[in-house]
Amino acid sequence: MIRASRIALAGVLAGAAAVVALCMCPAPPSQGPGRLAIEGAAHALPGAAVVVGPSRQPSVTSFPGTVQFEAWLKTTSSLRGIDLDGDWGHLDGAGKLIPSRSIRLRFDQLLTLQGEASLEAISSYVDASSRRALGDDGGHQLLDVWNRYLTLLRKSNATGLDLTDARNWSIVLSERHEARRAALGVNWATAFFEQDEAEFDAWNRQLLSQSPQPSHPSEIDPSTLTTEGRDRLQQEQAAWKDWESRLAQARTQWNSIRVQPGLSQEARRAEIEAWIGAHFDAAEQHRVHALLGPDLQRVDAPH
Q1: Looking at the domain assignment, is residue 224 inside a domain?
Q2: Is the whole model's pTM more than 0.85, yes or no?
Q3: Boundary-marking domain end, from 162, 184, 216
Q4: Which residues of 7-31 are buried (b: 16+ CB within 10 A; e: fewer)?
Q5: Where are the alpha helices (DSSP H) in 222-292?
Q6: Is 253 domain-assigned?
Q7: Percent of the chain having pLDDT more than 70?
Q8: Range of 299's domain?
């Protein structure tokens, strides 16, 4: 397939990196003394997050128990002297933990302590503190979310991030969106990431509308090419035509499935996913979901 054109402006790339980092990595906690920075694609690492920066300690501190960890957190750690971001959440009338972005903010801030304290010590603190705030059952529910969040952070993307190709970002975000739903469940993934994903999507759409469009094979003058180049151009023209035809068919197929009577929302989604799987390879499927995202999201709308 034809690659999207490169975005040449360094300032745009810098802004792109910042926005992509916002969606790919834990949300940055509020500023405070001794702040450690989270940088890079933490999801691709074997650990839950990566902590870097001038304040990073050469070795982690050992803690005999949670009491010692809490004392260290308040007096010695990089988070000393500040109130933690977010909260431990709240329970509904049935005693179920309510999904909330504020829980993720607290998780992310505590994960900046890696490099100073072990993940096991941080997890023990999460367990003990959430049980005090929510009771044993509520704390157990929160610890389960914490563990699933760590699983998500360890998971890498199938598609690599290319900061020179804005169209690649939609594909990467689509993969990350599905990974978040798989690891956390729809309700928790929505609560944790809906705001970030919406902001990224709006920013990316604006950038795409302002960036040069990729050259279509039909716009290239064959007379300027070598014999090998003309052969390659013909292949690209055929591939582009095939892609555009299948993409148009996918949109038509979805519009047809959406109005079929007697199908549940789940059945509609299963039918279009089966059709896409039969007509596109694995890499193309990510691109189809990204390009048809606004249309395919209407699968969950009442009919």
Answers
A1: no
A2: no
A3: 216
A4: beeeeeeeebeebbbbbbbbbbbee
A5: 227-258, 265-279, 282-291
A6: yes
A7: 69
A8: 229-303
